[in-house]
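Example 3.2
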Amino acid sequence: ISHLNYWKVCFPKVRKGGLLVADNALWGGSVLDPQDDDAKALDAFNRYVQNDSRVETMLLPIRDGILLTLKK
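Structure, written as tokens:
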């Protein structure tokens, strides 16, 4: 799981008003109580994006979760 690595590479390339979409943000619900490395990495990614003041974010609980992020 390398969502955060992808984020750091892609974010600068997205224009203001652009949308970033991350799949599997809920990882089968395991991010609610992360026990394994994958769940912990996704939880850290979700928290990182949520606390990023450069974006507006919404997590859709569809299947394994879709994180929609709008760059301000």
